[in-house]
Specification:
This protein has about 260 residues and is an alpha/beta fold. It is built from nine helices and ten strands. Helices cover about 45% and strands about 15% of the residues. It is globular. It binds ligand T3D.
Amino acid sequence: MEEPLVRVSHSGSVRTLALNRPQALNSFTAAMHGELRAALDAAAADREVRCVVVTGTGRGFCAGQDLADPAVAPQRDGAQVDVGAAIERFYKPLALRLRSMPVPVVAAVNGVAAGAGANFALLCDIVVAARSASFLQAFSKIGLIPDCGGTWLLPRLVGRGRALGLAMLADKLGAEDAERIGLIWKCVDDATFPAEVETVAARLSTLPTRALVATRQALDASQQLDLAAALSLEADVQRTLGAANDFAEGVAAFMAKRAPAFVDR
Ligand code: T3D
């Protein structure tokens, strides 16, 4: 049987999607985009799923666009290639899908994350990286700008100065430094990486999913709002969440000194 380009596995209420083109450091092809999109859609639609983990097989996380793909590589005969069309067709929907997932998404960065592969990781809610992993905004090396959300994400995560340094110089940033400058949540030892990812995903899966997703949405929306508008948004979201099951359960569990069992999604 043919190997899938995205390996899907399930443990408890955690769905893991592993990019699976290790021979090319899990770089994106049209077919892999298709499988990833289908797997994300399936996870979003499955009420049993309360956390999604994305990772890579082999020694890399994802090396961005597969540059050997004739659909994007400049043609030897001088024919123009519409790189923008690939962005519209694949990367924009991928970024918007990740940011609209109805459950938290963890990027488990097991190795190098380059180009769109780096920004694919940074679009996720929580990024945990193995100490040997690295992040590389490889775009300037091939005459492009950061895509897959890079121009939006980088200044928001690390500020304009560091964003420009990372994007223009395209140096490999080790996982420790990525954590130090606030690009990612956590860098952990390679030996404990799988267990740490499992722990964080299991924890997220027991937390109030709807509130976690509303937190992501409110943080993203606040980037465009003044304080008064952000405060109003907070009031609106709290009004909705305050009427949901998880708020009642969270308060009841606190008062009864027991662990809560959240159900909303
Ligand atoms: O084009 C459009 O549609 C626009 C979209 C753009 C989005 C983008 O992501 S643009 C950026 C694309 N990505 C890159 O430019 C990164 C290219 N890769 C690298 O710079 C290096 O491979 C790494 C720094 C990521 C890792 O280096 P290293 O030394 O650990 O590994 P390596 O030997 O370079 O790569 C291992 C194999 O994977 C190698 O194949 P081989 O020689 O063993 O048969 C290499 O060719 C292959 N590989 C790595 N990255 C890609 C790739 N093959 C195709 N496309 C890749 N992006």
